[in-house]
Specification:
The complex is a heterodimer of chains A (772) and B (289). Chain A is an alpha+beta fold. In chain A, the strands form seven sheets. A seven-stranded mixed beta sheet of chain A has the order 3-5-1-12-9-10-11, sandwiched between helices. In chain A, strand 10 (214-218), helix 6 and strand 11 form a beta-alpha-beta unit. Chain A is globular. Chain A starts with 19 loop residues before the first helix and ends with a helix. The model of chain A is unreliable at 1-6 (pLDDT under 50). With 289 residues, chain B is of the alpha+beta class. Chain B folds into three domains: 7-52, Uridine Diphospho-n-acetylenolpyruvylglucosamine Reductase, domain 2 (2-Layer Sandwich); 63-173, Uridine Diphospho-n-acetylenolpyruvylglucosamine Reductase, domain 3 (2-Layer Sandwich), CATH 3.30.465.10; 179-286, CO dehydrogenase flavoprotein, C-terminal domain (Enolase-like, domain 1, 2-Layer Sandwich). Chain B is built from twelve helices and 14 strands. Chain B has helices at residues 14-24, 37-42, 78-83, 85-90, 92-99, 104-109, 112-118, 125-131, 149-152, 228-234, 241-248, 265-286; strands spanning 7-9, 28-31, 50-53, 63-66, 69-73, 135-140, 143-148, 153-155, 158-159, 166-173, 179-187, 194-204, 210-218, 225-226. In chain B, the strands form four sheets. Chain B has a five-stranded antiparallel beta sheet. In chain B, strands 11-12-13-14 form a four-stranded antiparallel beta sheet, with helices on both faces. Chain B has a three-stranded parallel beta sheet with strand order 1-3-2, covered by helices on one side. In chain B, strand 11 and strand 12 (194-204) form a beta hairpin. In chain B, helix 11 packs antiparallel against helix 12. The longest helix of chain B is centred in the C-terminal third of the chain and has 22 residues, at 265-286. Chain B is globular. Classes of the chains: A alpha+beta (772), B alpha+beta (289). Chains A and B meet through helix 3 and helix 19 of A and helix 12 of B. The structure holds flavin-adenine dinucleotide (FAD). Residues 29-37, 39, 54, 74, 101-102, 106, 110-111, 113-115, 117-118, 120, 123-125, 166-167, 191-193 of chain B line the site of flavin-adenine dinucleotide. Flavin-adenine dinucleotide binds at residues 29-37, 39, 54, 74, 101-102, 106, 110-111, 113-115, 117-118, 120, 123-125, 166-167, 191-193 of chain B.
Chain lengths: 772, 289
């Protein structure tokens, strides 16, 4: 696209987020702030069993409690009330996922009964009064165990625990392995993480008096997609549901799908013709909201002795949990697009096996398969360097896709748009003082300390999942309204979209109002996830804005009786080229557009909508460097330095980009150092509260050093690439490689994350006793 | 989550509180800072019929010098214990323990009496107060009695208190000249509670040898455990690095911890020796005569 505007410096400016004054003074409006007259409250009784038959449910005592409106079990609900997963792979199995268990439960936290009452406390009391008799069934928690012969069936309706198997081949992997001079083999497991949005899930639903339409407030990342799913399940026309995402306190992927409680709330609201609210407790959130990672990767990397990579085989065994949410099957498939990372490996074979277990369903969590893929190749390449005695930077540079090769078709058939991986690695070396770090490491090692340096170089694909929409409307006043289909749940769309529109239209930022998150206001949209909003939503907005500019230019020309070619954009509107005083303001243009003083044949009004689908992902990338020391006495790792160089193309708001990296790194360090959802052998949840699930807190963060390179995306109107998941992709393998580098002198080859102090202490002790 | 329904009373004096306590019996619970009790009620692990809130009872808050003891009111919040000049001057180990409890919110609400009465095996105060040889003042309608820390912590969440008693004060003897106190803790990364901790009170002669040692370990049993073997090992010895290490190496001898999902039993026992050494070293440094 050719935009002839003169920059007023808004794109690229670290503008403070316009959302924040409201949010940080506690004046936001979240779902739980929605209180309507006569509102009822839903509370759900959940199974503590991971896998059991329901023998009987006695709700009589619950029904007798004053203030209880209704108590319902799965058998009493219409059969069509199910969560429907998408078929993503041929042959994928989709076992039933009723909104209340019918006869059996397959994961801890499965709802078995629902209570609607006049208050949340009464509903909770009633839940406690329900008697359920279960018959425990054998259960399985680990995906690799679930594939073993004789493993318990997680879903007894099926003949094995495999949900799907998908394969991606590129080149001739057998030939590559036949030529190999060295083969690296690794088995790597990424720990299961909890998404843990600060605001747990929640929904409020208000039916119209006739019970024909519904207004829904939902803490969601994608109002339109979830509305379509909700309408499908309820059997209701989509456009009879107004779905509003009010202020949303984080999602990280977990607030993409439609959940059982969402359906229950709407079903009861329609049935009882009363507004109803359901708010997850933190405990609910731990056992019902999709969790992330939990993939076991078995890989072989074929190389020449000089470090040239020849071929790659990866087998992913992905833990999907006991039920499929709409997006559960998705994340593991990322390996099929990302296995070779930023390296030239033309011969690849990737197999992904999605496995049912009796655990909470998994799904997209910040990175959604990207961190697993990056971890896999970055551990492999470090191990290859170690085995072959080649410097880890040299082996990376040797295999990097070179700048002149872009757009580059990878061994698994993806086309990377642009990049200069050498440049970002160089920058990271410089920012980290790499040579000095290595010297420090060696000196400290000589003094008996356990110190390591780790590097990761990675790609971050962004902007997938189809279209996003954007509308730009010039109001009669000349003010600019932007409507995006990509609703924000903390990212700062209101700021960034206003920056883009204001810069393109050469208007002050406060003349722009950004609307989002309401299906009655915005055209169809997709949502915010997968680092996609700036890329796809930004692209839609830029295209729509350009269309408005093009039309406005003709109106402006008409008003001053000049030729459109002679008009140029000027502050606040247009002017005749070379005659700056011959100006037409947005207000004048708008007045003309709505009163019909426009060129003949032109349509009245000044509003354009674009449905933008880049049809290709944008491949951001980066290089991260980590210095870690491990206390020999306690095993505690300390990240002493973490340098993060990221390239997300053109930066619209560098401060927001930094915030995205900070947040992603925090979650990535959680994975690397402390977070893990653990199930006991009998399937009980052992880390179901914040007292035992060690989420990263602000005080746990090490100092970060950020840097950037800028490779504009050649296929995008604004030149941007996504960045939301860069921190979760690049930081954990940098830490993993640093920890393994630290432990290498002890003869330790690989340990899976998270690197807790007791785990590292145990490994060190083991290694020392092995040597003695 | 919501607690079950409960009644609430806010007495204005210890006597009134005691009366309410005997009236309601075991169906009632005293409420201090609420930072252990309320979470338990929300999870419905505890469902008292009545809460007797000690918050408005005067005279239970603050630290005062009483002869050669420090008397700490049961309702004194952790933050006030940690920042008290008297505590910092005479019992730096206690201030240290107070300042590593939970987070700022917890320290601003939770009370030393609540912590002691609750007797969580992963709590900090019981460990340091046992090392400091503290005494607890218990009042009932029948009068008052005192129990020493060594006898007070009976089992997991169980103390020597009777259900009709209120803990009103914690009495800590001022250590003799040449004594240092210290506390060292390995906090759980999620909860902030004790995984393992060590408290130490060490008296050293001008000559440099140890005349008295009280060393306690937390996290490895149902409550604080006296590291008797370490104490004995140190007795009469020069307080040098080697002897301290030898004593600390015995710190886990009286313990038999269970492993859990965060740390195995071996790690916990090992950490007891590490933290005991760190606590003893810090106490010795402070034991300047
Ligand atoms: C997030 C979090 C983190 C925490 N981390 C730590 C930590 O790292 N270390 C630590 O030691 N603690 C920790 N705690 C616990 C905290 O210190 C509590 O405040 C303390 O254990 C209990 O004190 P309270 O005043 O809140 O007592 P409450 O919760 O009000 O009461 C606890 C129990 O003691 C009884 N009780 C209270 N006062 C008296 C009294 N005067 N006489 C008789 N009985 C009484 C009550 O009836 C109740 O049974 C944490 C708590 C939270 C919520």
């Amino acid at each position: 696209m050719t935009t002839e505007h003169i920059s007023n410096g808004l794109i690229g400016a670290s503008i403070r987020r316009v959302e924040d004054p409201l949010l940080i003074t506690g004046k936001g409006c979240y779902v739980d702030d929605i209180n309507l007259p006569g509102m009822l409250h839903l509370v759900v009784l959940r199974s503590l069993y991971p896998h059991a038959k329901i023998i009987s449910i006695d709700t009589s005592a619950a029904k007798a409690i004053k203030g209880v409106v209704t108590v319902v079990t799965g058998a009493e609900l219409p059969e069509h009330l199910n969560i429907n997963a998408q078929v993503m792979f041929p042959g994928q199995k989709i076992p039933p996922h009723p909104v209340l268990a019918r006869g059996a439960v397959h994961a801890p936290g499965t709802p078995v009964a629902a209570v609607v009452a006049e208050s949340r406390a009464i509903a909770q009391d009633a839940c406690n009064a329900i008697e359920v008799e279960y018959q425990a069934l054998p259960s399985v928690q680990n995906a690799e165990d679930a594939l073993k012969p004789g493993a318990p069936l997680a879903r007894e309706e099926l003949d094995n625990n495999i949900c799907y198997t998908a394969v991606k081949k590129g080149g001739d992997v057998d030939k590559a392995f036949a030529q190999a001079e060295h083969i690296v083999r690794m088995h790597i497991v990424s720990p299961r993480q909890v998404a843990l949005a600060i605001e747990p899930r929640g929904i409020a639903a208000n039916p119209d008096p006739m019970g024909k339409s519904l207004t829904v407030w939902l803490s969601t990342q994608g109002p339109h997609r979830v509305r379509a799913d909700l309408a499908g399940t309820l059997g209701m026309p989509e456009n009879k549901i107004r779905l509003i995402a009010p202020d949303v306190g984080g999602g990280f992927g977990s607030k993409g799908p439609l959940y059982r409680e969402d359906v229950l709330t709407c079903y009861f609201a329609l049935k009882l013709r009363r507004p109803i609210k359901w708010i997850a407790t933190r405990s609910d959130d731990f056992v019902t909201t999709i969790q992330g990672r939990d993939q076991a990767m078995t890989s072989e990397l074929a190389l020449k002795k000089d470090g040239t990579m020849l071929g790659l085989k990866v087998r992913v065994v992905a833990n999907l949990g006991g039920y499929l949410q709409s997006s559960t099957a998705g994340p593991p498939q990322r390996m099929m697009a990302m296995a070779p990372g930023c390296y030239q490996i033309k011969d690849c074979h990737v197999e992904v096996v999605g496995v049912f277990t009796n655990t909470v369903p998994t799904g997209p969590y910040r990175g959604a398969g990207r961190p697993e893929s990056v971890l896999n190749i970055e551990r492999l390449i470090d191990k290859a360097a170690k085995d072959l005695g080649i410097d880890r930077l040299e082996i990376r540079r040797k295999n990097f896709i070179r700048p002149e090769q872009f757009p580059y078709k990878t061994g698994v058939g993806m086309e990377y748009d642009s990049g200069d991986y050498f440049k970002s690695l160089d920058k990271a070396m410089k920012l980290s003082n790499y040579q000095d770090l290595m010297r420090q490491r060696d000196e400290r090692r000589a003094r008996g300390e356990i110190v390591g340096v780790g590097v990761s170089t990675f790609v971050e694909p962004s902007g997938g999942a189809g279209f996003e929409s954007g509308t730009v409307r010039i109001e009669r006043s000349g003010d600019i309204t932007v409507i995006t289909g990509s609703s924000s749940h903390g990212q700062g769309h209101e700021t960034v979209w206003a920056q883009i529109a204001a810069e393109m239209m050469k208007a002050p930022m406060d003349h722009v109002t950004v609307l989002h998150g309401d299906t009655y206001i915005s055209q169809q949209g997709t949502g915010t996830f997968g680092s996609r909003s700036a890329v796809v939503g930004g692209g839609a907005l830029a295209t729509a804005a350009q269309r408005v500019i093009d039309k406005s230019k003709r109106i402006a020309a008409h008003l001053v009786e000049a030729a459109p070619e002679d008009m140029v954009q000027a502050d606040g509107g247009f002017a005749v080229a070379g005659v700056p005083e011959k100006k037409v303001s947005w207000r004048q243009i708008a007045a003309a557009a709505y009163s019909g003083k426009i060129p003949q044949g032109m349509e009245i009004g000044l509003q354009e909508t674009c449905f933008f689908d880049p049809r290709r992902e944008a491949w951001g990338y980066g290089a991260h460097v980590c210095l870690v020391s491990i206390d020999r006495e306690t095993g505690a790792p300390t990240i002493e330095k973490l340098v993060l160089v990221d390239d997300c193309g053109v930066l619209i708001n560098p401060m927001i980009v930094e915030g995205q990296i900070h947040g992603g790194v925090a979650q990535g360090l959680g994975e690397a150092l402390r977070e893990q959802m653990i199930y006991a052998e009998d399937g009980q949840v052992l880390t179901g509260t914040l007292m035992n699930y060690a989420v990263m807190r602000a005080g746990d963060m090490p100092p970060l050093t950020l840097g950037e390179t800028v490779t504009p995306n050649p296929f995008h109107p604004l030149g941007v690439k996504g960045v939301g998941e860069a921190g979760t992709n690049g930081a954990p393998p940098a830490v993993a490689n640093a920890v393994m580098d630290a432990l290498a002198p002890l003869g330790i080859d690989h340990i899976d994350m998270p690197y807790t102090a007791p785990k590292l202490w145990e490994a060190i002790r083991q290694a020392q006793s092995d040597r003695a | 989550m919501f607690p079950a329904n409960f009644g609430y009373a806010a007495p204005r004096s210890v006597d009134e509180a005691l009366q309410l306590l005997s009236k309601h019996g075991e169906e009632a619970k005293l409420l201090a800072g609420g930072h252990s009790l309320i979470p338990a009620m929300k999870l419905r692990l505890s469902s008292p019929r009545t809460l007797i809130d000690l918050g408005a009872v005067p005279g239970l808050r603050g630290v005062r010098l009483d002869g050669n003891t420090l008397a700490i009111g049961a309702l004194t919040v952790h933050a006030d214990v940690g920042s008290s000049d008297l505590v910092r001057k005479h019992l730096p180990g206690l201030a240290e323990a107070a300042s590593v409890i939970g987070d700022v919110q917890v320290r601003n609400r939770g009370t030393i009496g609540g912590s002691v009465a609750h007797a969580d095996p992963a709590a900090d105060f019981p460990v340091i107060l046992t090392a400091l040889n503290a005494t607890f003042v218990l009042q009932s309608t029948g009068g008052s009695r005192t129990v020493t820390a060594d006898k007070f912590f009976v089992d997991y969440f169980t103390t020597a208190m009777e259900p009709n008693e209120i803990l009103t004060e914690i009495i800590v003897p001022l250590p003799p000249a040449g004594t240092g106190t210290a506390y060292a803790k390995l906090a759980h990364p999620a909860s902030g509670y004790v995984v393992v901790s060590a408290g130490a009170m060490i008296t050293r002669q001008p000559s440099g040898s140890c005349t008295a040692a009280r060393i306690t370990i937390g996290g490895l049993g149902s409550g604080p455990v006296r590291a008797v073997a370490s104490e004995t090992e140190l007795q009469g010895k020069a307080l040098n690095a080697q002897n301290i290490a030898a004593a600390a190496a015995k710190a886990a001898e009286e313990t038999d911890p269970d492993g859990d999902i965060y740390a195995g039993a071996d790690y916990k026992r090992h950490m007891a020796t590490v933290l005991a050494r760190r606590a003893i070293e810090a106490a010795v440094k402070r034991a300047v005569t």
